[in-house]
Amino acid sequence: MTWRRDRLWLAHLVLGGAATVSYAAGVLPDLAFAVVGVGCVVAWACGPRLHNVRPRQPWRLLTAAGLLFLTGIILRTLMVDLPAPRAQLGDAFSVCGFGFFIAGLVSFLNRWGMDRHALLDGLIVCIGSAVASLLLFVMPAATIPDRPLVVTALAGLYPLLDTITVLLVANLAFTTAVRQPAFVLLGGMMVLVFAGDLGYAIIGRSGDVNGSRLMDLPFLLAFTLGGAAALHPTAKALSRATPLPIQAWSLPRMLVIGPAVAVPFLLTVLLAHESAVSRLVLGIGGAAIVALLLVRASDAVQSHAAAQRRFEHQATHDPLTGLPNRRLLAIMVERLLAERAPGDVWMFYLDLDGFKLVNDSWGHPAGDQLIIDVGARLRHALPGTATVARIGGDEFVVVRRCTEPEAMGDARKIMECIERPLVIVTAEGATAEVVVGASMGIVRADRQEQADALMRDADTAMYRAKEEGRNRWTVFDASMRDAVRERVEIEVALRAAVAQEQLSIAYQPIVELPTGRLAGVEALVRWEHPVRGWLGPNMFIAVAEDSNLISALGAWVLRESVRQLARWRADGVVDDDFWMSVNVSPRQLGDAAFAERLAAVLQQAGVPAANLVLEITESVMVEGSELTERVLVELRTLGVRISVDDFGTGFSALGYLRRHPVTGVKIDRSFVKGLGTSTEDEEIVRAVVAMSSALRLSVVAEGVETEAQRDVLVTLGVPLAQGWLWGKAVPPDEFAARWSLGGVGERVAARSD
C-alpha cells in the first residue's frame, strides 16, 4: 500500500501527459482538459493528507486557486461569444485564482523564512520582468482602439500578476539550498503558467484575447506538474527550507538575475523611438535595478564583514559561556607578559570537582547550565582587570596582573564563589540544588616565561591539588615540574613495558583464620624499570590510569593470572576450591565487552568462573555509570565473584553494598594496623564483619603483619586474611615451592618473613 501511495505522482504525470496529448490532437479536448484540471485540484486537496504534510495551509490556498482557475476556464469557454463585460466573467474567477495562488506561494515563503539577500535578488528579477511586461505588453494593449475598458484592463493585469509570481518564484528558488523533486515539479508548474500567460500577452498586443488550442498546452502541463508535486513523497519537505549559508551570486543565480539587469538597457536601444512614458518607465526601472544592485553589494560586504567577525569570535571564544578560549587566552597572556607595568602576572588554573557526577546524574543540559553559571560567577566575583577563560570541559583559567596578597585574595574569592550551592534544571524539568568544588593551581609568571609554559605549570599545580585531596589550591614550585618530568618518563617506559610484556606478576597468599590453611592468592603486578629498578604499583598504576594504559595492563594481568591458576591446578599445587584474586580498574569495567572477553579467557584456560575474584574500588560503586553496572551484573551472571578492595577508606555504606552485585569485602590495612592497640580500629572491623555477615559477604583482612593482629581478627570473627605474617608476594615458582608442601589442603603454620 505504501509503495502504491509513493507512486501516485508518477501515475498522475502519465495520466496528465496522455490527456494533454489528447487535447492537442483534438480528441475529446473538453474531457481531456477536465481530466487534467480536476486531477490537479484533487491532488492538491488530497495529496498532502496521503503523506501527512504539515502545515496544510499553503496547499489549501493552492486548491482554492485551482478551483477558481478551472471555473474561469469553463466560463470563458461557455461565454466566449458573449459581448463584454459578460464574456470576461471567467477572467474574474481567474484573477481571484491568481490571488489565492500568490497567497499560497507567500505561505510557503513565510514557513521558510525570508532572507534579505534572496528578497533583493528577487526584486531585481521582478523589476526587470515588470519593465518588460509594461513596455512590451501592457502599454501596447492599452493603446488598441475601440476595445472595451475591461478587456484592456485584463490584458494589462495578467502580465503584472505574472510579474508578482516571478518575484515569489525567484525568492523560493533563492531561499533554499536543497531542491527536492516536489519543489522542482512545483517550480516547473510556475514556469509553465508564466509561459502560457506570456503567449496570451503576445497575441494581446494585437487585440486578440483567444488563441488556438495549442496555446493552452502550457496550462495543462502546469496543472499536471502541480498535481504531481502534491502527490510526491517529498512534498513534506516543502514545509521547511534548507537555508543557504551564504547568499552568493553564483553562476545559476546570475543566469536568472543577469537578463533582468539587462532588460532596461536592451529595451532602451530597441525602443529608443518610443514615447516619453516608455522612457520614463525605462529610467525608473533601470534606476531601481541599479539601486538594488548597490544595496545588494553593500549588504553583501557588510554581511561578509559580520560573518568574519562572527567567525573570529567563534574561533577565540567558548561557544557555551562566551568566555575567551585557550587560543585567545594565550594571546592575552602574551600581551600581559610583554607589558612593563607594576605587579606580577598570576594565573589560576581550576578544574571542577564533582562536575562529572552532576553531568551523569542529571544529564548534559544540566552540566552545561552548571558550566555557564560557574563562568558567570567567576566574572562577577573577580575585578574587571581579571581575564576569565574556559579552556576545556570543566576547566577554567583566570589571569590577572596584581600583587601577591591580591592574588591570594582572588584565590579565596574563586573557591568561595564556586562552592556556593547552584540550582540546576534536570532533564525532567525539576530543579535541584548541587554543590561542586574546585582544585586549583596557581602560578606567578616569570618575566621570561611564555604563555604555554605558564599554563603548563598552572596545570601541574592543579593536579597536585587534586592529589592532595581536591577542593583546594596549590601554588606552583619548580619541584612540581621535576615530578611531572619524572611522571612522563615513567609513562614512556611503562608504555614500552606493556607493549613488550616486560612486567611480572607476584602472588601473595590468602589464608583461613585461625588455621593458616591456604585458601586463595592475590595477583599483584610488578615492574622492574630499566633505570629505577623495581617499582611498586603505587609508582606506576596511577600513571597507567591517566595515560589509558590501564586497560591493556589490566587485561594482561588478568590473562596471565588465570593461566597461572590453571597451571597450578593442573600440577596439583592447589585444590579445586583455591581461588585467584585480581584487581580490575574502573576503565576495564567501563568496557561493554569486558565480561565476554573474560569468559573467553576462563574457557581457554579451563578455570571455573567461581575460582576468580575480581577486586574493585569503592569508587566504582559510587561513580560507576549504567554501563559499569551492567558489566558487574554480567560478571556475576558468569559466576565470577566480586570483592570491594580497601573497604572503609572511601564511601563505605550499606546502601552501596546492597545495590551492587558484590560477594565480599577486603578490610583496608589502615584499620588492621591498629588492631591490638586501637579500640576504634577494632570497632570498625567489628562493624564491617557484622555488616558483611548480615549481607552474606565474605571478608578478607589485608596487611596482617603480627600474630597479635591475627589473634584479634580471629576473635572478631574475620575468616580470611593476607599479609607479611604469611609471606610477601613472590613469583609463581617460589609460591608453588613454599605453599605446595607435598599436599594441597595441608595446614600451614603462621610465619613471618
Automatic annotation (TrEMBL):
CDD domains the record matches: EAL, GGDEF
Domain EAL span(s) in chain numbering: 487-743
Transmembrane residue ranges: 7-25, 31-47, 59-80, 92-110, 122-143, 149-170, 182-203, 254-271, 277-295
Keyword Cell membrane: no
InterPro entries: Biofilm_reg_signaling, EAL_dom, EAL_sf, GGDEF_dom, Nucleotide_cyclase, Rev_trsase/Diguanyl_cyclase
GGDEF domain span: 343-478
Top-level taxonomic group: Bacteria
Keyword Transmembrane helix among record annotations: yes
UniProt KW keywords: Membrane, Transmembrane, Transmembrane helix
PANTHER family, A to Z: BIOFILM ARCHITECTURE MAINTENANCE PROTEIN MBAA, DIGUANYLATE CYCLASE DGCP
Protein name: EAL domain-containing protein
Taxonomy of the source species: Bacteria, Bacillati, Actinomycetota, Actinomycetes, Micromonosporales
